[in-house]
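Researcher: Next entry in the queue.
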Amino acid sequence: MPRLLDVSDDVRAEIGDEEADRLLTGENAPGSYDCTSCRTPGDTEQERTSTVLFVGDETAVLAFAHASCIPSQVVPVAEEQLQGAVRSITGEEGAPPPPAPEPPAGQVSVPAPAGVRAAPQQAVIGVTSGLVLVDGDVRPALVVEPTGPIARPGSDGPGDDFLPLLIEQGFMPVSDVEQEPPVLPGWSVLLAMGRLHALLQPGAPGESPAAWWQAHQPLPVTDGWRNAVNRTSQVLVFAAPAGSIGQQSHEDVLREALDKAAAAGVLVAAVMPLAGT
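Model: Structure for this entry, 277 residues:
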C-alpha cells in the first residue's frame, strides 16, 4: 500500500531512486513508527511522514518522523553514536538509541563557528536550552554565549564584535524579553533523534544550509522543551557576549539573566523554525 512519505532530493540521492520508490510504494516502509524527533507514535498510512537519513563515516540509518516535526533530510551523525544506535536496535528490537553523554548543566561547548575567531584565543560557544515566558506563552529557547571576546575576521584588535556580527546577520537587539523577535529568514534549528544537533544558516546560492554552530555530541533537551517546540515548530534564539548570561542551572535564574542582559543592551535574538529551510 502506498505510504504518505516525503523523500527529499538529498535523501533520494543517498539511498538511490530504486530504494526511494520502494519506500513510497510501501514495500520497504513501516506502517507505524516512533518519530525520531518527538518520540511519539506515527503512522505512514495515515499522516505525512518524513524520511530522515542519519549518515556516519561508514554507517547510514534510515528513520522516520512526523512531517510536522522535521522535514525529510540527511543528518550527519558521529559514527560512534550511529553504531551505538544500530547495536541497540539489533540487540533488542524497538529499543531506543543509547543516550549521548550528558553535558554539564544542559550546556555543550564547541569551537567558534567558521569565520569567527576569538581575541586573543579561539573562543568556545556555549548553547543552553530552556523555556522562556514570552507574552504569556511558554516558549522553547536557546541561549548562545561565547567564553571570550569575538573579534571580527581580519581584525587584530582586542574588541568584542560578537553582537555586531550577529546583528549584521539579522539578529535584533532585545530591550524586553517579553517581546517576540522576528523570524530570521534562512536560519533554522536542527533537532533530530530527540536531541539538538545544530543551528543552520543560509548556504551559498544554490547550496543547502550550512551549520553555523554544530554540537560535538548532540545536546539533550527536556521533554517539556521538546513538547513546546513540537507545538510551535519555532525556537527563540538569544545571544549575548561572554559573561553576560553565564551557565544557569534553573530556568527562572536564566530568565533573570536574560532580563539583565536586555536591560544592559547586550542581548540580541531571533526566531528560527525547527529543522527547516
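Model: The chain is about 20% helix and 35% strand.
Researcher: Noted, moving on.
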